[in-house]
Amino acid sequence: MSQRTPRGTSPRSPAAARDALRAALNRRDFLKLSGLGGGVFAAGTLGGGLLYSTPSRAVQTNARVVIVGAGAAGLAAANRLSRRLDGAQITVIDRREPHYYQPGLTLVATGVWERGKTEDRNDRYMPRDVDWIKAHVAEYDPDHDRVVTDTGESIEYDYLIVATGLQLRFDQVPGMDPERIGSHGVGCVYDTPQNAARTWEALEPFTHQGGKGLFIRPPGAIKCAGAPLKMTMLTEHRLRQRGARERSELHYYVPGSGLFSQPRIDDFLDNHFPERGITIHRHHRVKELDAENRQVVFTSEEHGEHTETFDFIHLPPPMSAPEPVRESPLAAQEGEHAADGWLEVDPYTLRHKRYANVFGAGDICGVPISKTSASSKNMVPVVVQNLIDDIEGRECSAEYTGYTSCPLITEIGRAILVEFDYSLEMVPTLPLISPYEEHWVSWIMKVELLQPMYNAVLRGRFA
Ligand SMILES: Cc1cc2nc3c(=O)[nH]c(=O)nc-3n(C[C@H](O)[C@H](O)[C@H](O)COP(=O)(O)OP(=O)(O)OC[C@H]3O[C@@H](n4cnc5c(N)ncnc54)[C@H](O)[C@@H]3O)c2cc1C
Q: What is the pTM of this model?
């Protein structure tokens, strides 16, 4: 197992002066002191009047910051920290080189966008001054401030940001796996752009021929909880466009009683689905899939175990924290976030509840709100500010409100821009557009404006 050590320091550098002081202090106290007042060292007050200047707002520190995951949250955090910290050693760990614009996958899976529009590259957004390790973290060892990669490299940190997103648990649905997507009438929008395109390959013939379509909302916390709803409503619209609606039946299965966590939108869907002839089945869970015979077994409180046939099924799997987090001391130990191993963070500061030098951003966080890139966009500045507060010896000053947003597409050309927070109250940001009504402006936002905004967020802009 190889070991990474802090960057080398030249005897004349400010870092050499810091090293002398560090010998007398423990590492985190040292980092706090070095961050005080915008940087004792930046002012050149130590070590015989070192003369150097730093960007006015950059915080001087030689903290080692490790970010695990280079998705929506990880890249945004890397860019922000790289601008806000001067002298820090920032490391990003993620094997994945392609970057997927996941909010566009629903449009790919319903034939609105080509798959290529959602495919990008992480190196276009990775700041030049970070160390990018192309491996995955296999083990978290927060008691010793280190992570170990699946290539056996041990990396020590002063601060850790966990931004690994979540794991799709195809293993929890017997008969279902990503290889099935696109054949035997099986679709799933949640995987890769390739499998979103293959979902459209399975869905398109159905929208011409019609038949029986089943749409599943898996149990537990999932990313973009609006996506199963959007897949259902877009399919209904496609069937109408192609004159196949009258020879089709559509069914939507939910594990609980509600369709959406925001109460006003839940009420809207309760009426809207029956108006469009979509039957809602509550308290249903998928037990197993028999794709070859186009059959799925459900368990339900009311009907027990029963089998349904289908011509098309949209079957997203349950989701959990990725295994290395789930199996680590960082996972929630009790409460609603424990079963799926979500990161145990304070919902407002996003700081780990037991390991003060660990923060979380994005889908991995065990917080009581939908997992969206809109949430990540608002979480990252909070994490960055609170991490810097700690470096500078202050209490965490920034709080995440729980903001999340979902452009709920109801048909091609119309959407509701749903924005809410921990209070579950709507917090609309678009003037003049009702957050409760379908509107073409919200559709234009979804297909034209949100992707450039997402890319700007990756570069550490916005919010
Ligand atoms: C179909 C679909 C539709 C969506 N629609 C919307 C929408 O309309 N609006 C919206 O705001 N959001 C939407 N989202 C959700 C949004 O894409 C996610 O919430 C967002 O990407 C979360 O960002 P993240 O950084 O937490 O995770 P991700 O962006 O998924 O990135 C996680 C990264 O961590 C890496 N990783 C995983 N494990 C490890 C490990 N052990 N070591 C190192 N790296 C690791 C992965 O390789 C990946 O690069 C949608 C998602 C899907 C799938």
A: 0.90
